[in-house]
Predict the structure.
Amino acid sequence: MFRIRHAAAMATATAAVFALSTGPASAAPGDTVNMCASALTPSGWVDVQWWNSSGCGPGFTPNSKQIKDLRGYPVGTQVNACGSTWPPAGWTIVSTYYSSSCRYSAVPSLDPNTWTLKRTS
């Protein structure tokens, strides 16, 4: 049973990676995609939420994330993003704070884990 669930989780992760490798080119600023945490966040995107999903495998560590496309926003735009990925080029961290939706560790703390980002160039 574990092998079947693991294979299904891997197939889902592979499909998400394939969708991201073909989809973001046509994505609009602010588009979001849900994916397993085992897949890397693509360039120009940031993590905006984390949670645990049985579809991405067993365990207590958050294993699913929602990512947001930041490409194409005008200068001056501000967005909130989890501190689990670095801001893309042209974005600057203007503030930090704690958010329960950005807990990406099995041993979370109340330290700031979320950023307000501003498009500067």
